[in-house]
What we know:
The protein has 183 residues and is an alpha+beta fold. The protein has one domain (29-182). Helix content is 20%, strand content 48%.
Amino acid sequence: MKTFLSRAPKFGLFFAVAFLALQATPVAAADSGSGTYVSTINKKTISTTFKDVYAFRYVDSGKEVTMVLLTNSPMDKKAMTAALRKKPKLSTIETFGNYLDGMEKATLKIDQNAITYLHFYSPPNYNKNVIGNNKSDVKVNTAKRVEGSFSWSIDETSKGGEAHKFDLRFATDLADVGRPVEW
């Protein structure tokens, strides 16, 4: 007579093999974009939390540049990619027509493996550009994926000036926009 206990070693071996097989299965890396921007201007505090990320490549003076967009709201990435495929120009990328209307966004420019430029826009008309003097770490910048972080701060409120602080993190696959996007 076979009992449950007499079958237990076979089931245990089956589950052990299945568990090990699952451990060896590669898992797609998750996309994430997060971070904050906080500033004090004229004793008024502005704060933004970034929640979504989109990235692509474009060509500037014959060199490939990675562009990473972080926004405070979800982006329509399929529509953005379709727009870039239809009209592969940087002007399409920077404005995205109405795809990013009303969203606060940070745009990071990555030359090779270093972040060289950040532009922050908060509707209706607040802009902040940051070049140099930042702490950035680009962990991955391959043909298909980009991952890294960017932080920068300045506090001149003691002198009657402004304070700004960026702390951004991103990890995403690059959008497949077809032929290279042009400057």
